[in-house]
Design a protein that fits this description.
Layout (H helix, E strand, L loop, with lengths): L1 H46 L1 E4 L5 E4 L3 H8 L1 H32 L6 H13 L2 H11 L5 H8 L14 H25 L4 H9 L4 H12 L1 H16 L3 H7 L12 H11 L3 H27 L3
Helix pairs in contact: 1-13, 2-13, 3-7, 3-10, 4-7, 5-11, 10-13, 12-13
Length: 301
């Protein structure tokens, strides 16, 4: 009898604890459900329908036709190729630059706090403002071409030449996003025990050997985080491409990205179902890329 009473008490306590836990979690679950789960489910619904917006919203079920049209659309593959090229160049470049800046500022140089502020300014500046500034710099008679001409190097039509238009966006974003990851690296560098470097110095290791065998291995988890965030962010390139090309992805689709193509499908062509299908393609690419990064680099980094 005593044992049965104890079991009932423990069961009641267990239920009350769980109810209390779910009660505390309820606001978060509600917010996630409204702003994440429901939009995803609605996007799935839209991707399987043809949506008519004029004259009242009407849904026509078409199955996977949006996805088959996506496969046959040349502009989708152009946008995907541009986006992958952008990711493949920008992510490693901004990561390496951020690490170099962080190691330099952490080395005890004079006025390092002022240098941190100076480097971090592009990150807190509006992306649209930065893009407009760089459009002025990239102008045919702009600062960059004048500088290249001064050095005796060839100049480019950065805004109108399909071969360099996307690279202009790459340069701008590497410069503006590396400081954000620099701050993350700086925080991680300060957590590395100084005793490791002192022991390495006693063993005769030079600064480069210390970076190679202590700093980089100790930063592996942070580097994985930086790479993952960089990949997710760069795959969603939109605003710079939109401003550079006035929303067209030009010249000759050179700056057309997947997110810009989604914008064109939904807001210009009013193809909400087709735009949702492209969005799911982008989501799949980001998930697969992140999983592969985790698989091949997560444990090593």
């Amino acid at each position: 009898m005593v044992e049965a009473r104890r079991r009932r008490r423990d069961t009641k306590l267990y239920i009350n604890e769980n109810l209390a836990g779910y009660g505390f979690m309820a606001p978060t679950i509600l917010v996630l459900g409204i702003f994440i789960v429901l939009p995803i489910l609605y996007a799935v619904f839209l991707s399987l329908h043809k949506v008519r917006l004029l004259g009242g919203i009407k849904y026509e079920f078409i199955g996977f036709r949006n996805f088959t049209n996506l496969v046959e659309d040349d502009r989708v593959w152009i946008a995907l190729r541009n986006t992958i090229e952008y990711v493949a160049i920008v992510v490693p470049s901004q990561t390496i630059l951020a690490l170099i800046l962080a190691v330099t500022l952490n080395s005890g140089i004079r006025g390092k706090n002022w240098w941190r502020i100076l480097y971090f300014l592009p990150t807190v500046t509006s992306s649209a403002v930065l893009t407009l500034i760089f459009m002025w710099i990239y102008n045919s008679n702009g600062l960059l071409n004048n500088f290249l001409a001064f050095l005796g190097l060839p100049t480019y039509n950065w805004l109108g030449d399909p071969s360099v238009a996307l690279k202009g966006i790459m340069l701008m974003n590497i410069w503006s996003t590396a400081p954000f990851f620099m701050v993350i690296y700086l925080a991680a560098l300060e957590d590395i025990p100084r005793s490791l470097y002192e022991a390495a110095e006693l063993d005769g290791a030079n600064p480069w050997q210390q970076i190679l065998h202590i700093t980089i291995p100790m930063l592996r988890p942070v580097t994985f985080f930086v790479l993952a965030m960089g990949i997710i962010g760069t795959f969603q390139l939109f605003d710079q491409s939109y401003i550079f090309s006035n929303g067209n992805g030009g010249p000759n689709n050179a700056t057309l990205t997947v997110v810009l193509l989604i914008y064109q499908a939904v807001f210009r062509n009013l193809q909400m179902g087709y735009g949702s299908a492209i969005a799911f393609l982008l989501a799949i690419v980001i998930i697969v890329t992140t999983v592969l990064q985790r698989r091949f680099f997560g444990e090593k980094m």
